[in-house]
Structure formats: C-alpha cells, structure tokens
Amino acid sequence: MTTLTDEQVDFIARAIRAHGIRLEDLQDNLLDHICILVEQGLEQDGNFEELLAKVFRSFYRKELYELEEEALFLASVKGPRLVLSRGRFFQWLFGIFLTPYALFCLLTLLRALPVSFEVFPGALLRWAMVGSCWPLISLAVIYFTPGRFDPLVPRHAKILLGGGSLIRVFRYEACEA
Predict the structure, then answer these.
(1) Is 177 exposed, middle or buried (0-12, 13-18, 19+ CB in 10 A)?
(2) How many CA atoms lie within 13 A of 151 on its CB side?
(3) What confidence tens digit (pLDDT) does each residue in 83-138 have?
(4) pLDDT tens by residue, 41-60
(5) What is the C-alpha separation between 91 and 99, in angstroms, rounded?
(6) pTM score, two decimals?
(7) Cα separation of 26 and 67, whole Å?
(8) How far apart are CA 93 and CA 104, in angstroms?
(9) What distance in Å separates the CA atoms of residue 128 and residue 106, rounded to the nearest whole number?
(10) Mapped to the 3 state alphabet, what secondary structure does 123-176 carry?
(11) I need a surface site. Which of 3, 13, 70, 82 has the fewest CB within 10 A?
C-alpha cells in the first residue's frame, strides 16, 4: 500500500485550512478521509497534485466550507432528527397519501365476500381519498420536475426531518470529475 509522506500530509492539512475549514475536529476527519482516498488513488499510479484536486472536488458542490456550515447546522438542531435520501423521502410521502386508496380497494374486495366486514365507515374513507388527491398531485409534480428547472428537492439531495426545522433539504449533487 502506498503511504503519504509527512510533507504530503502537511500539504493536505494546509489545503483544508485554506479552503475555509475552521473546526479542528472536521479538519482531522477530512484529513483522514482525504489521505485514505489519495493513498488509494496513488496505488493506481496517479499524480499527487491532480489526484488531490480531484478528491477535494468530490467533497463539495461549490466550496469546501459548505461541509462546515452543514456540520454546524446539524450540531445546532435539537431533538430527534431523521436524514433521508430524496428517494426514501418521496417513498414515505407517496405511501402515506396512497394508503387511503389501498384501504378502499381492500375494503371493496372484503365487502364482495359473503361475510360482512364493516371496518371503516365508507364516507370517512371517501373523504380521506379526496383529501389525499391534491397532495398526491403536488408530490408528483415536485418529484418529476426536471433538474434543469431548479426543482424544489433536487436529485441526490438529503432531507432532514424533525428538530428545529421541520424539513431542510441539503443539495448533494454528484460532481462531474
């Protein structure tokens, strides 16, 4: 395994500080991760400077200090929180709003049986279906908005639920290397 020299590690540490990272714990974590990625890249006969620039670009969208801003925000959030990927977030929302339709179909099938299954009043279920129609349409529009139109929840985003803010979207878009 290729190991970095002390000068290369010091160079990476200075570059992390030069990119605006002030938190020492975050500097140490980034230094560790970047050194590992650079060592793996050097095993494949890579150039140190080019490889370091490529690794740095993979950690941020515009600037590296975005990581520090997100770390400070997450540290400031009180109470329980849940971070979901965009796909999992929309799966949960579609599931919540499609449940009345599934229940209606299930109850319709059960009522067709010769045995009486009066679980829910039909009027309540119909109102739930009508009430979930508009959110379903809105979710479909938000989910299928193309990236070129600056969607509300972009692809590769992370969604934070709970805590101080009810919902916060972090843009994690893949970097073109």
Answers:
(1) exposed
(2) 21
(3) 788 889 899 988 988 888 888 777 777 776 665 555 556 666 677 777 778 888 88
(4) 877 666 788 888 888 888 77
(5) 12
(6) 0.52
(7) 9
(8) 18
(9) 15
(10) HHHHHHHHHHHHHHHHHHHHHCCCHHHCCCCCCCCEEEEECCCCEEEECCCCCC
(11) 3
